Amino acid sequence: MTTYAQAIADAAQVLADARAHRDSLTPEQAAAEAYVPGGMPVEEIAALIRRHRAEARGLVAA
User: Fold this and answer.
1) Where are the domains of the chain?
2) What is the pLDDT of residues 33-45, one digit of tens each?
3) Is-contact 28 42, C-beta < 8 A?
4) How far apart are CA 31 and CA 5, in angstroms?
């Protein structure tokens, strides 16, 4: 049986792996993977990703 602590650790690893994969992509590639039909257009998602990355680097105010 998996303990609560192990389940949290496993979920954290999944999240870390997903973020590492996303961060290895260009904004356009990441946007294409994030797109869902009926949702935001890929171009808007890519712009959002670029803004988030700039904020994370401290290039623009959050």
Assistant:
1) 4-56
2) 999 999 999 999 9
3) yes
4) 33
Task: Give the Cα separation of 62 and 49 in Å (integer).
Answer: 13
pTM for the whole thing?
Answer: 0.73
- Main-chain phi, psi angles of 59, to 5 degrees: -85, -20
Q: What angle do CA 46, 18, 11 make, to 5 degrees?
A: 140
pLDDT of residue 2: 84
CA atoms within 13 A on the CB side of 11: 7
Any idea which residue has 């389940």 for tokens?
7
Alpha carbon distance 3, 20 (integer Å):
26
Quick check: 55 and 62 in contact, CB under 8 A? Answer: yes
